[in-house]
Amino acid sequence: MMTMSVASLAERVARIPKFVLFGAAALVQLALLVLMIVDRAQILRDGTEVTLQTRPVDPRDFLRGDYVVLGYDITQLPAGSLQNQPSGERNPLVYVKLAPNRDGVYQALSVHAAPVDVASPEVLIRGRITYGASCGSNRDTFCEKLTVRYNLESYFVPEGEGRKLEDIRNQGKLSVVAAVLPSGRAAIKRLLIDGKPVYEEPLF
Amino acid sequence: MMFDRAYRQRLEADLARWEADGVITPAVVAAIRIALPPLAPGINIAVVVAIVGGLLIAAAFLAFVAAHWIEIARLSRLAMLFAGILSAHGLGAWFARAGQPVLADLCAAVGAIIFGAAIALVGQMYHLGGDFAGGMLLWAIGALATAALTGSRGALAVALAAASIWSSMRVYETDVAHFAFAIPWLFAAGLALAWNSRVAAHLVALAVIPWWIASSFQGHLDFRPSFVLANGAALLFGGGLALAASPWPRAARAGSVLSTYGAFSLAGVAILEATMANEVFRIHAGDANRPLWTISCGVAGVILAFAATATTRRAGTAFAAGAIGLVLAAAVVLWTPRQLSEPWLAYAALLCAMLCLVVSGMLDAARPRIVAGWLGIAGVIAAITWAVKGSLLNRSIFLAVAGSFAVVLALMLNRFVPRSRE
Questions:
Q1: For residues A127 and A152, what is the distance between their CA atoms, to the nearest angstrom?
Q2: Cβ of B130 and A151 within 8 Å?
């Protein structure tokens, strides 16, 4: 029964004009690309704006091609109550509760393995642990310190401007405004130097 | 297609010789030629050059888009990527209509490659550098859809490669086996059956191997990948044999391809097991950690192989099932933690398994299985002989005993088994 249906399905597909099939294949691919872009645009449009202070990163990792690697004050965090808890995997997702300080720059309050309720102006941002989830005798508990990626670590800049931005970042003058959805997903919205916008990301 | 051409050449030579020897009449020769179906258009040198040209143009296009990204506005760059995808598929449709299936297949594959690069470039343009594995999954989905719609084997290869990278990265991230890979793999297997394509069956069989290798290198398995791989090879070989015994010709053909990969995997695992039993690796043997799913796969492989034997009632398949069982038995012996003495029993089981593989290939007339078995025998003997310290004398005694046993067995077989006519 199944064998017949597979064969007859193949025959039916063979009867459809080639232009339709190849066109449909191209449309599927274009739709997936559009989905990527629209998804990010939605974060930029609907997300809460959060200003984050960047910090220097390992100089050997600075510039690959034309993008600046951005590290943040919230990249390295103490695990707090998560320490010694089972991590489940090597690079688990975590949720970091952020709150603005007096200068309006957001800082980490606590790290959680699952989403927690936050009250405005607090924001919950989702990240993935790159280091710090393989401690303990079985290498499956959270360590004392965690390194977290938020999908905000790469920023592509016009050729030649990367070095300039690195210098500014290393002087502690570069900050980033990220848009964060209630689900915790984030995207870079604009770059600030000394608090003034220098790069604004268009939606599309 | 390629083999069909070789067969025709050999047939033509035979027909000419038989006609010259007077074995068949010219009328019969003519009748045979008429009875043969026309050869499908194959890959000639012009097509090969066109394939290389197509791939180079696709690469140049992508490098151009990537290099000029400051001068060209973001939306224009995006439009160029979209145009690249549309052109590749448009050209593919044109070739398909013009009766050039190989070039149509190539265009769909180039379209799938451009799509993958477009994901990377969109990721760059929109600063989506985070989830590389997620990008690979997206690529696999797009390429798989292209393969399903256009029947392109090239796009299927791209899809399986992307899915393998996605799965391997997820294994690295989570440190556990990534079963979600089964979804794109089963879809690809369905396409191979629907197309009744040997090339697609090869691709599907090949895609299993990186998944098992990635699954065997999980940190908590204490550097002992051979146990996991033995069970994987057992399932691939057993599953292939069972499929090959199926009454449905499409499944039987795909099954024979799977079983070939299974036989080579089994031989590879046997060599790996014999090598890993060496003193050098024995210090790593920690507490036994055998995931249940792995053992279930091995057991399923043995059951499927014996089910295939029961269906086909062929001695060759029974020997293949025996080879699977022996490699698994050796894996269990070798996995025993903190084993101090040399695992002679496991070595003997591995040698017997490879001998069974050769015999199975001879009885089933499956030449790849014979080659796999011989490679396995050579590899296992080399691994046993390779000793870093101390036990060479014991090894030489073991090899001499095993060799004498084989010679006695050969003499007995020579006496009791009727010899086939040369």
A1: 10
A2: yes
